[in-house]
Write a structure and sequence with these properties.
Keywords: DNA-binding. It comes from Nocardia alba. InterPro entries: Cro/C1-type_HTH, Lambda_DNA-bd_dom_sf, TransReg_Diox_bact_type. It holds the Pfam family HTH_31. It is a single chain. The chain is of the alpha+beta class. The protein has a domain of about 80 residues: 434 Repressor (Amino-terminal Domain). It is built from five helices and four strands, in the order ββαααααββ. A four-stranded antiparallel sheet has the order 1-2-3-4, with no helix packed on it.
Length: about 130
């Protein structure tokens, strides 16, 4: 791991621990639920009403802050016009794709920045130097 002027590159090569953990199930589920809801141009209030939950709870689920029960996930799937099995398969595929993206982590002034390997991270720090392995 190299360091230069407060900038460290954390390698993520073969056989090393990933520099970015894969998303938690609740985070991937929330992202997919929000995507389905927005594809249908449905509001939080409408979708939550169809699922029998509060809009606040649905918002927290979509943001990955709450981990709903299987019954709640089934109700949300139904409210979004899909089956529990299809929703679970979509979330699993999203997590699988995420796990295949090689990444590297760069620490800038104590803040960790993540970028796909081969892509330049967005750097807004003046006089920043990016070190790559």
């Amino acid at each position: 791991m190299g360091e230069h002027n407060g900038l460290r590159v954390i390698p993520g090569g073969h056989g090393e621990r990933r520099s970015r953990p894969e998303p938690l199930w609740r985070e991937a589920l929330g992202e997919r639920l929000r995507a389905l809801r927005l594809e249908q141009r449905s509001t939080l209030v409408d979708t939550a009403g169809r699922a029998g939950i509060s809009p606040q709870y649905l918002s927290e689920v979509e943001r990955g802050r709450k981990e709903p029960s299987s019954e709640m996930i089934a109700a949300l799937a139904g409210a979004l016009g899909t089956s529990l099995g299809d929703l679970v398969a979509q979330v699993a595929e999203s997590m699988r794709r995420h796990a295949l993206v090689p990444t590297r982590a760069v620490v800038l002034g104590g803040q960790r920045q993540i970028a796909p390997s081969g892509a330049a991270p967005i750097i807004s720090a003046p006089n920043a130097v990016l070190l790559a392995a």
